[in-house]
Design a protein that fits this description.
about 300 residues; alpha/beta; five-stranded parallel sheet; 5 strands; about 10% strand
């Protein structure tokens, strides 16, 4: 074993001939190429965010779909959005191949089933005004390509996210986000650099979409659902930071406004009653617009 190690350079040594620290270093070194590659896709990610925001601003739903690692990342992204950005139930749906039999993790058995891809998409109840983010590292997964093809036939907008270029899935998409990563340190294991690149691209895409929809004020997730003590404290901290008031006052305003952070900001900045503040908060897609009208209504400059 030592003779083989001496004959092969550290960069070329087989993973199974390296000590644990060497394996870890090799894997982390491979990750260094991820961020520059994702950055090269900024124009496509931004274009996709604008497309999705345009659809969702008029009631469109968002479906993230894939198979294997790509599908699990799609489901993870979909699961995080409603609570973070206060989206109504059903607005965002995550679908992964095989989930019908094994839950959210899915299985690898349905990746080649084109019929399952189409059926799983239709089972979400999507329509022509909705958007599909189709995720596949290779851009060739039959399950995902079939779902995207059906989405196109239905008139849905389609965004593809791949870690390859020039794929059938990208050809189907209105906007193709391509982040070509090349060979993995562990050959063929797309849960590694390809998975990291996919997660970064999806995070950037969905967060930019939510910003465009007005679900972010300044650098704050103003619509976070205060489902537990940690999130209630986070909401109170955000309200305090936006208004410049003490934390106790922010908590009191949130309680008076039914934990509607937008309404709490309006009451603290303009003195509007909680009910009226809630009405104005609902009328405007952005908190800035609501503050402007509340200030004018209350005579606060």
């Amino acid at each position: 074993m030592s003779e083989v190690s001496e004959e092969v350079s550290a960069d070329e040594a087989a993973l199974d001939l390296l000590p644990a620290a060497g394996v870890v270093e090799r894997l982390l070194a491979a990750e260094e190429r991820v961020l520059p590659t994702v950055r090269s896709a900024v124009p496509a990610i931004a274009k996709a965010a604008d497309l999705i925001a345009a659809r969702m601003s008029v009631g469109g739903r968002l479906v993230l779909l894939g198979a294997g690692t790509s599908g699990r990342l799609a489901v993870l992204e979909a699961a995080e959005l409603p609570g973070t950005f206060g989206l109504a139930e059903g607005t965002v749906v995550g679908v992964t191949a095989g989930a019908g039999r094994s839950g959210l993790a899915g299985t690898d058995w349905d990746e080649d089933d084109t019929g399952a891809g189409q059926r799983d998409l239709l089972a979400t109840g999507v329509g022509a005004g909705d958007v599909l983010i189709a995720v596949a590292a290779s851009g060739r997964t039959p399950y995902t390509v079939a779902a995207a093809g059906r989405a196109v036939e239905m008139g849905m907008a389609v965004v593809s996210v791949t870690t390859s270029s020039g794929s059938p899935l990208a050809d189907l998409a209105d906007v193709a986000v391509e982040v070509p990563m090349g060979p993995e340190a562990l050959h063929g294991s797309t849960r590694l650099t390809a998975g990291t690149a996919t997660k970064l691209a999806l995070d950037a895409l969905t967060t930019a979409t939510m910003v465009r929809l007005g679900r972010v004020h300044d650098n704050f997730m103003i619509d976070v659902v205060p489902a537990n003590l940690k999130l209630r404290e986070r909401s109170a901290g955000q309200v305090a930071a936006i208004t410049g008031c003490p934390l106790d006052a922010a908590r009191a305003a949130l309680e008076a406004c039914g934990w509607n952070a937008r309404a709490a900001v309006l009451t603290l900045l303009t003195g509007l009653a909680p009910d009226r503040a809630g009405e104005l908060a609902t009328l405007h897609p952005t908190l800035r617009a609501a503050i402007a009208e509340a200030s004018e209504e209350s005579g606060v400059s």
